[in-house]
Amino acid sequence: MKLINLKQKVFLTTNQFDFISFIWSEWRRQKFPLWIFLGLCLNIIVAPAVYAATPNIERTTAYALGVLGLVTVGLGVYLFAVILQPERF
């Protein structure tokens, strides 16, 4: 592995730099992993609210309910878009 020196400091190896540049170039073409990541980040916000609002529930169950709610809302938005714009699908 060759090291890249930026201002006399070791910053990244070439493998790490290549990986980061590959991710940066591919994120516009592959939207599915980005949407999954955003959904998981949104679940981090939703799950504690579900956990606080529901008495006598475990934390893992709260996260599962949060994922289920996000999937349900996402499916509803998708089906609504399919109904309004059927020629795109």
Automatic annotation (TrEMBL):
Any one Pfam family match given in the protein's UniProt record, by short name: Potass_KdpF
One Gene Ontology cellular component annotation held by this UniProt entry: plasma membrane
Family annotation (NCBIfam families): potass_kdpF
Transmembrane segments: 32-51, 63-84
Protein name: K(+)-transporting ATPase subunit F
Top-level division of the source organism's lineage: Bacteria
InterPro entries, alphabetized: KdpF
UniProt entry keywords in alphabetical sequence: Membrane, Transmembrane, Transmembrane helix
Single GO molecular function: P-type potassium transmembrane transporter activity
